[in-house]
Each structure stands twice: as structure tokens, then as C-alpha cells.
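hiii so um. not sure if this is the right channel but i have a protein structure encoded as C-alpha cells and i wanna go backwards to a sequence. like what aa goes where. can anyone help
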């Protein structure tokens, strides 16, 4: 059954009612035909079947010399009475005989229930027959079972009604289900973000209204996603361009730093040669100018080393940023089992190096029990160092920084606590978002709102998390990076 036009649910329901009424009428005809067949083949006997038999045998019973049992239907009982009411023969017992004679005297023909009396006058005798008025089974075996033919007819009617309801409900259920499948199909396409599909129209007005609404949502969502995608592509392009632009001055800085290093080495050798020649001419007298020159070169070499080391580190970070823009997520994630002791030692050296610029006192607290853990060493180090550098930048000179490494059930935790101003309420909500810089009066000029965002992203790649809070002990910020503890078997 298909809908050829756009119908409302109300019209479909009315149609269902009409089909049900027509089906019931057809069912009544079928039921009547079936009952007729049962009576025609005498599987069932009509209610007046025995009454009719008695009418047909009335003359025989009235005029025969004697009434025998073969003249009386088998389901009936009878008695032959004299004029004074005494029973001379028959199948009545005494009680039934008294009841039959009393009914005769009272002019009644009902024997109680569905039983009735038939009075047949004979010569000097009266024949009283008790017969049933009810539908009977034609087969004696079924009559003896005690099962009611009327109950059988009711059961047949109920079965036919159930079949009718099942057929109609199945037909209309398939119709409605088919139309609802179009809604499900549309919703699933939108769910899978396939926004270029074509929807199928429905034959039901209300379903079509919902499909139209979903189409409008599809168009709006498609437009929104395209806009978002364009903005994301523009953001990637800008960041990528910025990273490439920064590489140029970094290359120049690194080249000049290396050149200074070479020049310092040459000057150091020249100064040593000059001092040796002076000592040869004047004995072992000291050239104060040469000693001072040697001390300056040591300092220049030291700071030049810092420049080269950190320039290389920035280059690595820029390369990492470019690779992240290309790969976006877990394609760049390469975890392996790491020796806990070596990892902590390397991390302590890097933190100490950065903290020395502000003369910070670093307290390392290690509560690590496991000897190895599973992580991407480069990304995890970067995540921790981003947090540490933030803490250093917001800490006062000569203050303290607490770095704690610990295990907590199934997690590894890296907790960085400073003695700075701590997070504002806004920071706690948005500090992990990309390009968030916080309060202008508090933020550092060299911060671009990427450090905590990147740390949080790297923690997420490890199936871990980054949590921000203010320490009740120091009053400063406390940042916890935690990743699942996966031990080597």
C-alpha cells in the first residue's frame, strides 16, 4: 500500500478506520459462509435440529402401536404416560417423569435451561419428549466431549478478528515505517556529516515537514562547517607562514652566533700567543690586559653557547609546530617505553638551565616508583617545559619553583607549582584555549597564548589531562599534567 499523494496523519488514520470497517464487514461475510459450510456438512447441527426431527416423527410416534427408542432422537429423553399421570415406559427417571407431568398439567413447555418439552397425544396415552434447543456437534464423539459449539464459534470469530487486525496493522505499519525510514536516513546522513546528500520526499505531510526542517538544518550546518573550515585553513596558513617567517631571523641569529664563537676562538688563540711572547721578553710578568681579555672571552663564549642552544631549541619547536599543522593529531604521536630516571634527569637539567636566568631556587620532589613508562618523550617533555617556562616567566626573581614527579594509582603526574600571582578565575576557565593571553596587565609580552594549549593537546594525545588551579600553600599557580601509567611487561 503506497501513498500516491501528500496525506496527513489524520487522513491516514481515517483511511485505516475505513479499511478496518470494510475488513470487518468482509469478515462477517466470511464468518457467515464458514458457519454455513459447517452446518451444510453437519459438522454442526442447528439449534432446532431435534425439534424438527420430532415434528417429522410426530405422526409415527402418535399412531404406532408402541413407542420405541429408535423413534426418539438419541439426545432426547421421553416418557409414555397414562391419563392418570403414571409413566408406563420411557427413558425418564422418576424425578424427570414427575417434572414432565407437572409441566404438562401447568401448561408449560420449558424444562429449564435450553431443554424443552414436546407433547404428543396417543390413543389413551400421552408421550412427553424432552429435547434441547441449542447448537450441537454432528459427531457423537464431539458431543460427548462436553465442548460447547457456541464457544467454538466465538473462538473462530476471535481468530478471524485477530487475523484482520494483524494484516491491517502490518500493512499500515510497513507504510509508516517506510516513511519514517526517510527521516532516519536524513538524520544519519547529517550525523555522519555527509551534507551533500539528497533527501527523499515522503507521502505524509507531517513527515515532509520534518524533512524540510532537516533540510534547512543541513544547509545551515553545511554553511557553518564550510565557514569554520575556511577559518581553520586560514589559521593554519597564518601560523605556518609565521613559523616559516621566524625561521629566517633564527637562521641569521644562529649563523652570527656561530661566527662570534669562531672569532672568539681565534682571538683567544691570538691572545695566548701574544701573552707567551710577552712573557718570553719580560720573563714571567703578567699581562693584565691579556688576562682580562681571556675572562671576557670565557663569558662571551658562555652566553654565546646559551644563544646557540636556545636557538636550536626554538628551531626544533618551530619544526614541531609546522609538523603539527601538517599532521594535526595522533599521526605525529610516537610513544615508546622510557627510562624514568634518565627522563627525570634530562628534565631537571633543562629546567635548571631555564631557571638560572632568574636565579630561581628549584625544588625537585620525586616519588616515582616505576622504572619505565610509556609515552612520547619529545611531546611529553615539551608539554612539561611549556608549563615550566610559564611558571618561570610569572615568578619573581630569587623566588622558588617546586617540581614534583609522582605516581597516583594508574597515573603519572608532573606537578609544577610557583610563587607567582596565580590564576584568575578567567584564566582557570580559558587558559587552555588557543591564543588565550589573559589579563593585559598581567601577561608577558613574549606570550602568545599557545603554551598551555599545546601542553593540553600533548597530554590529550597520551589520553591524559592538564589541570589548572591555585596552590593554597604558595598562593601561586599549580599545573598538573597527568598521563596513564603503562608499565613495560
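sure thing!! here u go:
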Amino acid at each position: 500500500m503506497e501513498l500516491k499523494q501528500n496525506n496527513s496523519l489524520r487522513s491516514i488514520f481515517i483511511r485505516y478506520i475505513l479499511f478496518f470497517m470494510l475488513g470487518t464487514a468482509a469478515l462477517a461475510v466470511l464468518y457467515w459462509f464458514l458457519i454455513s459450510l459447517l452446518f451444510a456438512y453437519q459438522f454442526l447441527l442447528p439449534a432446532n435440529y431435534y425439534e424438527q426431527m420430532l415434528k417429522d416423527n410426530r405422526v409415527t410416534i402418535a399412531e404406532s402401536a408402541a413407542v420405541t427408542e429408535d423413534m426418539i432422537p438419541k439426545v432426547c429423553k421421553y416418557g409414555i404416560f397414562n391419563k392418570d399421570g403414571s409413566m408406563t415406559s420411557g427413558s425418564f427417571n422418576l424425578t424427570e417423569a414427575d417434572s414432565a407431568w407437572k409441566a404438562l398439567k401447568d401448561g408449560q413447555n420449558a424444562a429449564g435451561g435450553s431443554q424443552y418439552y414436546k407433547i404428543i397425544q396417543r390413543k389413551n396415552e400421552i408421550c412427553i419428549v424432552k429435547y434441547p434447543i441449542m447448537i450441537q456437534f454432528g459427531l457423537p464423539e464431539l458431543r460427548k466431549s462436553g465442548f460447547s459449539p457456541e464457544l467454538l464459534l466465538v473462538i473462530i470469530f476471535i481468530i478471524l478478528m485477530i487475523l484482520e487486525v494483524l494484516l491491517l496493522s502490518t500493512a499500515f505499519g510497513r507504510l509508516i515505517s517506510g516513511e519514517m525510514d526517510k527521516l532516519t536516513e536524513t538524520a544519519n546522513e547529517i550525523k555522519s556529516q555527509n551534507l551533500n546528500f539528497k533527501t527523499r520526499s515522503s507521502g505524509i505531510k507531517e513527515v515532509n515537514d520534518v524533512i524540510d526542517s532537516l533540510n534547512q538544518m543541513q544547509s545551515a550546518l553545511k554553511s557553518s562547517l564550510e565557514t569554520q573550515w575556511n577559518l581553520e585553513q586560514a589559521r593554519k596558513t597564518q601560523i605556518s607562514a609565521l613559523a616559516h617567517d621566524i625561521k629566517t631571523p633564527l637562521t641569521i641569529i644562529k649563523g652570527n652566533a656561530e661566527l662570534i664563537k669562531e672569532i672568539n676562538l681565534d682571538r683567544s688563540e691570538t691572545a695566548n700567543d701574544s701573552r707567551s711572547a710577552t712573557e718570553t721578553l719580560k720573563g714571567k710578568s703578567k699581562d693584565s690586559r691579556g688576562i682580562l681579555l681571556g675572562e671576557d672571552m670565557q663569558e662571551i663564549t658562555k652566553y654565546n653557547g646559551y644563544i646557540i642552544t636556545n636557538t636550536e631549541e626554538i628551531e626544533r619547536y618551530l619544526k614541531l609546530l609546522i609538523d603539527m599543522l601538517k599532521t594535526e593529531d595522533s599521526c605525529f604521536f610516537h610513544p615508546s617505553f622510557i627510562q624514568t630516571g634518565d627522563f627525570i634527569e634530562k628534565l631537571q637539567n633543562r629546567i635548571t638551565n631555564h631557571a638560572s636566568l632568574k636565579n630561581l631556587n628549584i625544588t625537585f620532589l620525586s616519588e616515582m616508583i616505576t622504572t619505565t613508562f610509556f609515552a612520547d618523550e619529545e611531546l611529553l617533555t615539551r608539554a612539561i617545559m611549556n608549563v615550566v617556562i610559564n611558571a618561570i616567566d610569572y615568578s619573581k626573581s630569587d623566588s622558588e619553583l617546586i617540581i614534583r614527579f609522582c605516581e597516583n594509582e594508574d597515573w603519572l603526574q608532573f606537578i609544577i607549582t610557583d610563587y607567582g600571582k596565580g590564576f584568575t578565575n578567567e584564566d582557570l576557565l580559558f587558559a587552555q584555549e588557543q591564543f588565550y593571553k589573559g589579563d593585559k596587565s598581567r601577561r608577558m609580552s613574549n606570550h602568545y597564548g599557545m603554551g598551555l594549549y599545546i601542553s593540553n593537546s600533548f597530554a590529550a594525545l597520551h589520553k591524559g589531562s592538564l589541570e589548572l588551579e591555585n596552590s593554597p600553600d604558595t598562593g601561586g599557580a599549580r599545573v598538573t599534567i597527568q598521563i596513564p601509567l603503562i608499565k613495560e611487561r
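oh and The radius of gyration is 53 Å.
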